[in-house]
Amino acid sequence: MSYLTHLECGLCRQSYDADTLQALCPDCSRPLLARYDLDAARRELDRDVISTRPDDLWRYREFLPIRDPRFALNLGEGFTPLHHATRLGKELDFADLFIKDEGNNPTGSFKARGLGVAVSRAFELGVTSVSVPSAGNAACAMCAYAAFAGIEAHAYMPTDVPPPFIAECQALGATVTLVDGVITDCGKAAVADAEKYGRFDLSTLKEPYRLEGKKTMGYEVAEQMGWTLPDVMIYPTGGGTGLVGMWKAFDELEHMGWIGSKRPRMVTVQSSGCAPMVKAFEGGEEFAEFWHDAATVADGLRVPAAVGDFLILRALRESSGTAVSVSDEEMIDAANTIGRTQGFFVAPESGATLAAFNHLRKSGWIDDGESVVLFSTGNGAKYAHLWRDDQ
Ligand SMILES: *Cc1c(COP(=O)(O)O)cnc(C)c1O
Fold first, then answer.
1. How many whole angstroms separate alpha carbon 46 and alpha carbon 256?
2. pLDDT over 90 for what percent of the chain?
3. Range of the structural domain that residue 304 is part of
4. What pLDDT is stored for residue 388 in this prediction?
5. Count of alpha carbons within 13 angstroms of residue 281, beta-carbon side
6. At 369, which CATH number?
7. Is the sign of the CA dihedral 60, 65, 67, 73 positive or negative?
8. 13 inside domain
9. CA-CA distances (angstroms) from residue 49 to 60, 223, 254?
10. Residues with CB under 6 A from ligand 1
């Protein structure tokens, strides 16, 4: 079923066994990436077969790490609609604008892809208790899959996380710990407790398989566009799993001959209140500095430090992409524009992609006639407090 062969460090390239539990590279503490026998896949698998399968991310199961299908926890994640946003495009006088509606996933965000696959693989490797530090959506997703697997779940979120995220985790049977601080502080608490109580921690890129789940967005966009890719992709970046995952997906797809060598220009958008990747990109740095006093209403973007920073920056540069920051106000305005024209209520992170698009159109970085995909990473419902007029 799976063509998984081994794990490889994203920085030092050392190889590791994929069939035991692994976290970061034991040598350099950087993320491990899953590798597959793509030559075998190229010989044995036809991309047209994929298109006859059910509409969820398990249609790409050969390129996911689960060996025994009984451990693939399926709540219907993935294969979300790719809308040709013609009403929005008309308003902006831009023809080929697309929105990948990730708010359609279980628990309302694309975190379901990463955590669905990561919890499945941990479950397969015998884990009975998992934890995650989260700004909100990752916790909800992890708790859902842990519940479905029948394993214990511990979510660590900042004290100021909006109440719906806490309620959802609790309703999914998990234990919630609130931490005074931001997601990196939650990460410290989660890791300390995981060591103390023998849990497996699922922090972004600190285990290899959330990335694998998120990379399926790259497979999907390619398949949904008839095995071609757009000119530009705009991605709201926190830990960067999705961006790095899609960049990896394109290499895998090209290796199998399912797409050509054309790549989209990848764009990171962050909030001006927390923009470590934008700063590092503009400064020509390989790694990003910690962002002090991170503040934004887009909880998923309140990530002051990312362990995969060098992978994000590498993907942006290799793709001739860019990084932009937008204000929280612009995000909410843009979310309203998406809602009013396309009919779905999106999270501020999703609004950020349209705000970045507007900047890049104004500066001429995106040309007339190009095709652009915006990643609407979450549903707006859990952020409804931002729309209350007494706020
Ligand atoms: C987590 C999250 C992000 C950021 O995703 P990364 O892959 O960590 O960069 C963006 N939007 C929403 C809604 C999120 O929950």
1. 9
2. 97
3. 82-109+211-387
4. 75
5. 26
6. 3.40.50.1100
7. negative
8. no
9. 10, 12, 17
10. 109, 111, 137, 204, 236-242, 300, 347, 349, 377-378
